[in-house]
Amino acid sequence: MSSPATVPPAQPASAWAPLRIAAFRSLWLAVLASNVGTWMQTVGAQWLLVDQPNAPTLVSLVQTASLLPVLLLALPAGALADTFDRRRLLIAVQCFLAAVGVLLTALTAAHRMPPALLLTLTFGLGVGQALTLPAWQAVIPELVPRAQLVSASALGSISVNLARSVGPAVAGVLVARAGVAVVFAVNAVSFAIFALALLRWRPDRPETEPVPERFTAALRAGGRYVRHSPVVRRILLRATLFVAPGSALWALLPLVASRRLGLGAGGYGVLLGALGVGAVAGALVLPRVRRVLSSNRLLLLAGLLYAGVLLVLALVPEPAVAVAALVPAGLAWMTVLSSVNAAMQLFLPGWVRARGLSVYQMFFAGGQALGAVAWGGLGEVTGLVGALTAAAVVMALGALSVLLWPLRETRGVDRDPAIYWPEPNLALEPQPRGGPVLVTVSYTVHPERQTEFVEAMRVVGRSRRRTGAMRWGLFRAGERTHGFVEVYQVPSWEEHLRQHGGRLTGADRAVEERARALAEGDVRVNHLLPADPD
Q1: d(C-alpha 113, C-alpha 121), whole Å
Q2: Whole-angstrom distance between the N-terminal and C-terminal Cα of the chain?
Q3: Residue 307 and residue 396 in contact, taking contact as beta carbons nearer than 8 Å
Q4: Which of 15, 129, 315, 339 makes the best surface tag, with the fewest CB within 10 Å?
Q5: Helices marked H in 6-54
Q6: pTM
Q7: pLDDT (tens digit, 9 = 90+) per residue, 23-39?
Q8: Phi/psi of residue 469, each to 5°?
C-alpha cells in the first residue's frame, strides 16, 4: 500500500514563539487563569467529600461528574464549534460557567451543599467544559501560523500543567484557611476573565464566509471522518490505553493523601503540585528528548514510568517518597498527552478539526470518567493498595502494547486543503439538500496493473468515506475486461459540493493521482440524482 503524500518537515518553531502574537498571548493567559480555577474547583469539591460515608466512591465521582459531559457531548460540541461562530460560542459558555460557579459559592457558604447537589453542579461545570474544549482547540489555528501549531500545542500543555501545579496548592491553602466556598468563588472569577479576553479579541473574518453545515449533517460527517481514518483511530487507542489506568492516580490521590499518608488539605495540594511541577518540567525538556527518542519510544517509557509511580504509591506510605514519585508521574502524563494531542492537531484538516478534537476529548474524558468509577469501586473492595497495584499492571500492559499498535507518524502528511476536482457540468439543476447522490467514476486499467490499481483504490475509498461518502465500492465492468467502476453515495448534493470545495487535502489528492496513474486514458464521472424531485 502506498504511503500518504508528505511534505518536507519545517524547522520547529521556538517553544515560546506563539506568545509573541498578542491575541494568542492574552487568550492563553486567560485560559491559564481558567485552568487554575478549574483545578481549584476539583480540589475543593473532592475535599468536601473525604469525610463522607463511602468516600472512595464519592471522591472518584467528582472526576466522573466533571468529565462525563465531555464523553456525552463531545461530538455535538465539536459540530457546534465547526458550524457556529466559535468566539461567540465560547463567550456564551463562559458566562454560563461563571453563573454555575456563583451558585456553587453561595450554596457552599450557606452550608447547603449535600453530596448529590455538589455532584450535580459539578456535572453542570463539566457541560460547559465539554462545549469549551473543542471550540478553543479549533480557535488556535486561527491565532497562530501552521508552523507554530506544535509550539502552541506545547504551550497548551504548559498551561494545563502550570494550573495543575498552582491550582491545587493554592486551593489547599485556601481550603485550610478560608474554606471551600472561597475556592469556588475564585473559579467563578476565572471564567469571567476568559470571557472578557474573548470579548477583546477581534478576529479577522473573510469577506465571504462559507455556508455553515447543518448541525445533524455535521455530526454525521464528523463521525464518518473518524470512523474511516486509521491514523485518528490509532491516536484514540493510544490515548485510551494510557488514560484509563492513569485515571486511578487522579481519582484515588485524595484518599492516598488523607488515609495512607495522613495529610490534610494543604498536603494534598502539595501532592498535586508535585504532579504539576513534573509536567511543566517535562514540557520544557521534551523538545530535546524528542531529538533522541521517537514518539513511540517516548510513549513506552512514559507508560512504564507512570506504572512504577502507581506501585510506589501503593507500597510506600511515606509523604516525602510520594512527593518525589509524583514529579516523574507528572512528566509521564504530560509526555503522553502532549504527544497524542499534537498528533491530532497536525493531522486533522481544518473543516473537521473541532469535531475530530471533540472525539479525542470524548475518549480522553471517557477514559478518565469511567476509569475513575472503576478504580474507586475496586478501592472499595480491595483497598487503595489493591486498586493502585491493579492500575499499575494495566498501565504497564498498555505501555507495552505500543510495540503492537504504534502511533503513526503524521508530521509530514500534507493536510492543507486541495481544491482540484473540476466543477460538475450538469444538465439538471439539483436541489442542494436533495439526495442521496450517487457518483460513478469509470476507469480503464491494463491487466498487468489491475492488482496494484485495486490496492490503490482501497486508499481512495477511505478518502471518499472520510470526506462525505456514506457508501463506497469498486466494481468490475462485466462488458469490458479492462473496465472498473468506482461507485460512492453521498447524503446530498450540498455534501458532495463540500467535497469539491475544500474537504480534500494534499494527501487525498496524492492517493487519488496515484490510483489514476495506473489507469489508461481519461476517467468518466457521472452524477446520478434522485428521480423523485420531492
Answers
A1: 10
A2: 43
A3: yes
A4: 315
A5: 22-49
A6: 0.77
A7: 888 998 998 888 888 88
A8: -75, 135
